[in-house]
Amino acid sequence: MQSETTSTTLITEYVDHGSGGGGRWFIPSSWLINASMAADDQRPLLSSTEPRNVLEAAQLALELSLRDEHFMNHSKIPLVAHQTWKNLNSSTWPKIVQQSVDGWLDSATGESDSSNAEMAYILWDDEGIDSLMNHYEPSLWKAFHGLPYGVEKADTFRVAVLRWFGGIYADVDIKLLQHPASWIRSEDLKEWNDVSTSQHYSQNHTKVKRYQAPITSPDIYQDILAEYKSTSPEVGAIYGIEADTPPDTDAYWRMGYSYPIQLTNWALAMAPHHPTAQKYLEELGEAIGQNATRLPDIDPLDLTGPPALTRAVKEHAESTSPGFQWGSLSGLNDGPGGRGKIVANDVLVLPITGFSPGRSWFHNMGSQSVSHPNARLFHAAAGSWRKVSVKVHFGKFCRTFLGMCRDWKKIP
Predict the structure, then answer these.
(1) pLDDT (tens digit, 9 = 90+) per residue, 342-362?
(2) Beta strand 80-84 with 120-124: parallel, antiparallel or unpaired?
(3) pTM of the model
(4) How many Cα atoms occupy the beta-carbon half-sphere of 263 within 13 Å?
(5) Spatial contact of 116 and 22, defined as CB atoms under 8 Å apart
(6) Is 267 exposed, middle or buried (0-12, 13-18, 19+ CB in 10 A)?
(7) Distance from the first to the final alpha carbon of the chain
(8) Cα–Cα dist 328/90, whole Å
């Protein structure tokens, strides 16, 4: 546990006393020193080492991580953590936000445990998010601003920022239990078998490709990515299960989920330009275009939240691996804590204990305690976007106990 003194110092140093537009950031000094001592045959940095805004900071963090391979173990996922909050005045933040930002800064700086790998940390505010979408997702920018709910914009941002800059995204009510550098373990990469189809799944060990930056992206961004290769068998994306229920029952929708096996979006990680991010954003753009006049009537969870993310990853996995059964990701029969499973060659899906440990006996679905070795983080489910609604609460009761009200909106 970090002390309150250390905690206050970190927020003061990196948030309150930080400067730059659109957010705040920490980039390890050792990364910059290593870059300054580059070999004679190594290209000079393209990014400014003194970022003026959050986009330049994200660009620098990406270039440094690619250049010197600051990645999560067994992956090409940059050790760069992204979070977002609407403003940078920490005195106005809820305590849970302060604790979360403190914890991630503590892990990034190695303040309380120097044995951990350093990582970059970027906190985006609303101005920074708008700048990201404007400069990197121009085709989606207008539609993005047309989204009626703030939670939908936050959902979109988390996938967009990882599409372009890679790394780890986490909500600001998440407590780290293990440093992200060690989230992927060798046992997660072992071949696994779907007993219902007798199909085996593992990493693809043959692909070698260069990162491909869209021609619409900024020139300097294209130049940065042109120098580096993405090589299998490294993991390219990490997702965690939030719902794990028998597929032949109504348990999932009575608990408020859209799929028997559903992924969470409060935490995820990926290498730049992973195809699951591309698919999610493309499908979102299509959905907004097809429902422009009725967006306020669509449940935000279905449009941009975990069901939308699950749908994109599910479709990618099924198209990449013909015959793949989404239900095979269930960990209900994998023993306490479950196990990670590789799908679509490079996507690691963690069991429910990975990103959803510590659940109570009600709706537990195999979730183990936060002390279980498979637990990577803990989600406090503060839900800053939630509003009180009698109808929504009654709908939850109606689904759970009466088996009715399935299609009612789950948030106001």
Answers:
(1) 999 999 999 999 999 988 877
(2) parallel
(3) 0.90
(4) 24
(5) no
(6) buried
(7) 37
(8) 43
